[in-house]
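Subgroup meeting minutes
Present: P.N., E.W., G.H.
Scribe: E.W.

1. P.N. recapped why we're keeping a running log of single-chain structure predictions: easier to compare across weeks, and new members can see raw inputs and outputs side by side.
2. G.H. added today's entry (154 aa).
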Amino acid sequence: MGKIKIEKFRQELVAQKKIGLDSMIFIYQFADHPKFGPLTQAVFDLLEKGKIQAVTSTITILEVFIQPEKEKNQFIISEYEKVFQNLPNLEIVDVNWYLARLASKIRALHANVRAPDALQLSAPLLKGYTAFLTNDERLEQVNLLKIIMLRDYL
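Output recorded in log:
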């Protein structure tokens, strides 16, 4: 992956300022994914420096912790918890009435979007954000937010 593409990616995120994050952003980061890890590291760096703000829903917590729970890896569980509790400029939105109602509207407009994805997309919408970072091509069809695809920056 070229330095130019990472810089273009950073510029896109900073231009958006407030971004919804899909679960896979955290999963790739925690796994130090060989292809997408440098991009997710850029996201975390921008959050830590206060150059962007991000939101995700508690669906991310559910999805990120599945593997370490299966493995009963208390060290990894503890490390993930520290990240979620201490990462600056990240807000985690609970799945509540408002999020669920917004997700139902997304599902009504986009039948191919699964319920967990609709909840994820609802978090930035609820907060008035205009962009969502993912690598899930099924979400490209959603026109309620600017969908930023990681793979476009490889």
